[in-house]
Amino acid sequence: MSFKYKKGGSLIWEDNDFNFYTKIDGKEVFIGRGMNVPYPLEEGDCWSLPGGKTFVYKDGIISQVKSFGEDKKILKLKERLEDLYEKFEESYLYSDPLGFVHKAGDPKDIEIAGFIAAGFAFGGVSQILKTLDKIDKIVEHKFYEFTLNFDAAEGLKLFKNFYYRFIKEKDVAALFLVLSGILKKYGSIENFFLKGFNPSDLNLKNALVSFSERAVKLVDFSPVYGTPAPPEDSMVRFFFTSPVDNSPCKRMNLYLRWMVRNSDNLDFGIWQGGIQPYQLIMPVDTHIGRISRYIGLTSRKNPSFKMAEEITENLKKLDYSDPVKYDFAITRLGILDLCKKNVNEADCEKCGIYDICNQTLTF
Ligand code: SF4
Question: Does residue 226 carry a pLDDT above 60?
């Protein structure tokens, strides 16, 4: 043995051929060779051996990832999803509300424009983008300044006759009222979110519950709805969904992905106050729910917070430190109509994940 070092609770040693070993459950285990093993190890690092074993460094300990099928199945899934991730990179931003947020240059504008864009990320992409452009014109491209100085009476005039599906002028004015209250009292959405965040939490579920509860109690809604609290059926609540209702909270999780991840040219990573990418939860909509079922990431039928957690935990077996990195790519299959609801053999044959998709077994 030529080299030993201790990392957290794990002792790692290397032989003269650059093979690395550690002890897991009292037994010496080969954990990789040379560049296979991340060095220096950082919390959340995850790596796989060509033979199929996957290891993770978490809470200061190296452990072997228990598979949700055979190791080979995981490796194949990882390979296909990595290919999909490489393919659907930033040139596809045009097909997503995230592309709209990229037009805002200043991080303060990005934080607000991102919340608005994620909040309206339901329905067809072209309609969403038209709606966001309409809002962009009203705020004169100055999301932060407009929100900070938002006046409800003036806002109701500016958003007169605004609607997007069931969201009406009062709801969008109420949304800006909440965001304005957050900026005035906390300086940023991140600061407000962090008040409910516990760094040792496995994921952001508790922080999300806290965020949504506090947001709808933060301001007096009388200037918009005529009552201090938003009426039960008011649609401003739709922008502040909570896991307690078993909602998948797709749009909130999408926003958090945009703000926290920073390892590619898709997401911004402007929130640097302590949330780690491995704590993010997969934004689950009907596309993600359906395709995740096809490829064995969930057995649940309907999108729910439980489904979102299950998909995320399974994706952690492919990349512990950054499980939601696959979201943008998998969603493209649905958004670009490459994977239709009614499975079609010709489309499937062109699909990059054909050989890991259980839908193709019926052909
Ligand atoms: S193989 Fe077919 S059903 Fe499966 S994800 Fe691709 S297009 Fe969809």
Answer: yes
Q: Give one DSSP letter per residue of 249-282, joined into a string.
A: -HHHHHHHHHHH--SSSSS-----SS--GGG---
Instruction: Write the CB contacts of 153 (distance below 8 Å, at least 6 apart in sequence).
Output: 223
Amino acid present at 159? F
356 in contact with ligand 1, CB cutoff 6 A? no
- Compute the distance from residue 192 Cα to the ligand 1 centre, in Å: 40
Q: Whose CA is nearest to atom 2 of ligand 1?
A: 348
Taking the centre of ligand 1 as the mean of its atom positions, its distance from the CA of residue 9, in whole angstroms, is: 43
Ligand 1 pocket residue status of 353, Cβ below 6 Å: yes
Check residue 313 and give its pLDDT.
Answer: 94
This model's pTM is above 0.85: no
Pick from 152, 158, 100: which is nearest to 126 by CA?
100
Most informative mutation of 83, 88, 292, 360 for ligand 1 (most atoms within 8 A of CB): 360
Q: Residue ranges per domain, the chain? A: 3-66, 90-282
Count of H-run helices and E-run strands, the chain: 15, 9
Structure tokens given for 354 = 């054909």
The whole-chain average pLDDT of the chain stands at 91
Question: pLDDT tens for residues 17-66?
Answer: 778 889 888 888 888 877 667 777 877 677 766 555 778 787 788 888 76
**Mean pLDDT, residues 194-201 taken together:** 95
The C-alpha angle with vertex 288 and arms to 268 and 279, in degrees rounded to 5, equals 45
Q: Which of 77, 81, 336, 347 to mutate to test the pocket of ligand 1 (most atoms within 8 A of CB)?
A: 347
At residue 248, the pLDDT reads 96
Is the minimum distance from the CB of 167 to ligand 1 under 6 angstroms? Answer: no
Determine whether the shortest distance from the Cβ of 351 to ligand 1 is under 6 A: yes
Residue type for position 110: I
pLDDT of residue 68: 45
